[in-house]
Amino acid sequence: xxxxxxxxxxxSPDVLTQVVGEELVILDLSGEAYFGLDPVGARIWQxxxxxxxxxxxxxxxxxxxxxxxxxxxxxxxxxxxxxxxHKLASID
Length: 92
Prior knowledge:
Layout: E1 9-11, E2 15-20, E3 23-28, E4 33-37, H1 39-49, H2 54-64, H3 69-85, E5 89-91
Helix pairs in contact: 2-3
């Protein structure tokens, strides 16, 4: 199921983040879970922190990476879905 491109996410206040090497580590304080994002995932997280919509994130990343728009949109939607599923974010 495709997400609305104008959707924005509210990141959970119960997470701490730290860059470790090339990975962004996310610690969920409420569930005591640990997640790691690769450099592209970390960039998506950074854009989510800035309040960008899913569509705007795709647009920014298309300028930064050599990737097909459909593949990028699918990857962004998958990561956003994972963040919501693990309660690290919610869709506004």
